[in-house]
Amino acid sequence: MSFRFLILSLTALVALLFAASLVTGVAPVGPGESLVALISDDGGPLTMVMREIRLPRAILAVMIGVSLGLSGAAMQGFLRNPLAEPGLIGVSSSAALGAVLALQSGFAMAFTLALPFAALLGAVIGVAMILFLAGPGGGAFTLILAGIALSALTAALTSLLLNLSPNPFAANEIVFWMMGSLADRSFDHVWMALPIMAFGWLALARTGRGLEALTLGEDAAASMGFDLSRLRLVLLGGVAASVGAATAVAGAIGFVGLVVPHVLRPLVGGSSSRLLLASALGGAALLLAADVAVRLVLPGRDLKLGVVMALVGAPISLHLIWRMRGQS
Amino acid sequence: MTWVLSFDQQGRAAAMLARFDAGLAQLADAVPAHRPTAATYAANGYTPGANSLSGDIIRAAGFSHLAAELGLTHGGFLPLEALILAAPDLVVVGETYSGNSRAEEILSHPALTQLRGGRETLEDRDWVCGLPSVVDAVTRMRVARDSIGVAP
């Protein structure tokens, strides 16, 4: 399959699932009628539902899917480990801790981008710890063990903060921060997340050639003139910004960054830079599909995205671990 | 000592009850023919049913209860989408607690704040218990109802 054909098919898939996401909801309204109400403002409540509830939800699914798919592909390229994924190695839960800290301390109200910025800081600490503990030469199992410890620590601190909150509803939201959801989000969340996410996408897009060189080994990449410490810094900033902003508005959604590069890697012929673009689109498609699925399975009940993603992703990670076991 | 105090309070209670009954009777006399729809909406999209004190207050104020129209007689979770599509004339939301929660964020969702109908904030203490102050809550709701205007 040519790369151009792959990208076109993925784009078409994203467009199709975007439309499916727009017409999925509890309201008993036909798809045609909903789309007409979205485009032409009839002043009725259906237009309000389409424009203020379903449209931002679908847009956020695309943005977050792109962020997670890109981050997974980039981290896997850099660490040369197919299990490197923001959710699995504790980066998402570090970002969630940053977001919860900002929300409960009131820092989130300090300025417009304070919430995603705080999540970015949490993610920076998470990614930095992972790269420090399990960077090049750290080995696959060091990475997973570091991720388990980091996830456990940040999840515990997040739960503690939410339990200490004066708000009686906060403690119930541990589930949201651990499993993620796009229910009842609005354009406020889109505008809040977009600037920081876009910065992350641009940074990750620039890592393509460096990751390509790295597939030949660190020494080869260095001899080709690639500055590995600079690549590490760009990667850290890119992953932290995109995962941080995504987690700040939708909670930690795992396995997207694991499943998508895993499925697409054979289709791009193992090229790391092509995998970045393909994984961005694939991530958007997967998150849109998961968000449609949670609404079809339990309409109006806010089933968490993490449930669907883990059902899909956990078997794949078990399979990957099994394969790595054979190698070592 | 105790019984002396309770004797005094019984007199006050009787007066309070009389005022309460008079207030309710006055409101009942003036129930308008047209009933706009009112919905109560709380954290996580919870809406108390029509068979509740708040349901009675809403009816006494001259509103039709949205939860009853939608079949939620004993209360339940109403998705935001369903609330917006039902387009109630008035949405009553409670005051939010301090400290952030995503559960309460739904009450400031742009789709809800831009709803064409009115919006009234009642504190829980105004209508969570059957107190004499319930008449005040009904009166406030009646004022809100009159400000909506009588649609044909």
TrEMBL record, chain A:
It holds the Pfam family FecCD. It is found in: Cell membrane. It is a multi-pass membrane protein. Keywords: Cell membrane, Membrane, Transmembrane, Transmembrane helix, Transport. The keyword Ligase does not apply. The keyword Transmembrane helix applies. CDD domains: TM_ABC_iron-siderophores_like. The chain crosses the membrane at residues 55-75, 87-107, 113-134, 141-162, 186-204, 233-256, 276-298, 305-322. Belongs to the binding-protein-dependent transport system permease family. FecCD subfamily. This is Iron ABC transporter permease.
